[in-house]
Amino acid sequence: MAKIKAIRGMNDILPTQTPAWRYLEATVEKVLGQYAYSEIRLPIVEKTELFKRSIGEVTDIVEKEMYTFNDRNDESLTLRPEGTAGCVRAGEEHGLLFNQAQRLWYKGPMFRYEKPQKGRYRQFHQIGVETFGMASADIDAEVIMISARLWKELGMLDDVTLQLNSLGSNEARAEYRSALVDYLSKHLDKLDDDSRRRLDSNPLRVLDSKDESTQSVLADAPVLSDYLDDESKQHFSELCQILDQAGIAYEVNPRLVRGLDYYCKTVFEWVTDSLGAQGTVCAGGRYDGLVKQLGGRPTPAVGFAMGVERLVLMLETLELIPEQLKTPLDLYIAAERKGLQADVIALAEKLRQISPGLRVMSHCGGLKNINNKARQTGAPWIVLVSKRDDELVATFWDQEEPYKDLSEAQLLETVGGRLNG
Ligand code: HAM
């Protein structure tokens, strides 16, 4: 019978890969802790209506990328394609949003039916940050600075660039939209098929087109910054000023529009050259209208989400994963001959007891070629247990100092001392 395989674009994360994931997640959690953000855990499945109303009916995500199905009760449900909508839904449902300042984060799998390629998957993972109740540019700067600190912490600050833009108020964007449609309509013959289709439904997305001919038309297109309302201009200049003072470099990209409809004012993306085509590792912006749009009271909001797979790829490509994390163990302990298994297990337990940080793997199974077997584990320390005159003898081996015969007490002391030293 044919073997069953995983679904295309949905990856297993194997034991050789999980150390990088855990390292990334632990570092993100540490940094989020430094900014006093609280974790929220959200369902993976939501009502389809939630995503249609928030992300927008005519976005790529809602039009063609959602995993939508009817449950047994004939209700239309969707595997979440992103986390912002669910976070707003939960915040509103539990009274966390109105008249409060909230700083939240979440992590987990998201689902989009995209064409899989390196850095783009159908099940992928995001770690996201959402803040509510703060309208001024200081919080836009804070969320950007969280991501900047994370890149610094991971050693990849020099490999990412921050792109920044302002989309202005809804009114300003509507005015710009009609100017853009007027202009593009005069050059229909030069636009690619996708852009022509988007002209009616979502013309701002044409700015994202990678098609050369469309790009040449866009070179002379009206730019959004000329249409910005005064309040958005002021907000953007305050943001830039805070980032300047904090020493965070950015590029203003007037073409940056984002693929989800809920944004206004600030939008940003962190991009890298080190991954090929899927170079956006983190993206977000302000979405002051979304809470109201989903039935709540007007609540300013800003946040971002990073793509965990892309960041893990970057850590691997740039060789930034600490060597020590690549092996799952520090010490391998085995008996030198038969009949000592109970002693080995007892000694392994004592080691775990006195050195809780020590990762001890105790050998199970046959002892043939035990020296080689122990070495093949890659453990930096190996202990082989034997008995002389009824006393346990631990032969301790490490890279620097090969073979030392120690009593049980000496072994516990040596290992403890090295861990602390
Ligand atoms: P997004 O730009 O759609 O924004 O996704 C954020 C990040 O998720 C992307 O920059 C990318 O790193 C990663 N990502 C997206 N799709 C895929 C995929 N198919 N495979 C691998 N990685 C992917 C949002 O989702 C917004 N909810 C962000 C946000 C939060 N805005 C405000 N708050």
Question: How is this structure best described in words?
Answer:
The chain is elongated and about 95 Å long. With 421 residues, the protein is α+β, with helices and mostly antiparallel strands. The strands form three sheets. Strands 1-5-6-11-10-9-7-8 form an eight-stranded mixed β-sheet. It has a five-stranded mixed β-sheet with strand order 13-12-14-15-16, sandwiched between helices. The chain is built from 15 helices and 16 strands. It has helices at residues 18-34, 48-55, 60-65, 84-93, 137-154, 170-185, 193-201, 212-218, 230-246, 290-293, 308-317, 323-326, 341-354, 370-376, 408-420; strands at residues 38-39, 45-47, 67-70, 76-79, 102-111, 123-132, 161-166, 251-252, 264-271, 280-286, 301-307, 331-335, 360-362, 381-388, 391-398, 404-406. The model has no long low-confidence stretch (mean pLDDT 94). The structure holds histidyl-adenosine monophosphate. Histidyl-adenosine monophosphate (HAM) is lined by residues 82-84, 112, 114, 119-121, 124, 126, 128, 130, 259-260, 280-285, 287, 303-307, 309-310.
How would you concisely characterize the structure shown here?
The chain is an alpha+beta fold and 421 residues long. It has helices at residues 18-34, 48-55, 60-65, 84-93, 137-154, 170-185, 193-201, 212-218, 230-246, 290-293, 308-317, 323-326, 341-354, 370-376, 408-420, and strands spanning 38-39, 45-47, 67-70, 76-79, 102-111, 123-132, 161-166, 251-252, 264-271, 280-286, 301-307, 331-335, 360-362, 381-388, 391-398, 404-406. The mean pLDDT is 94.
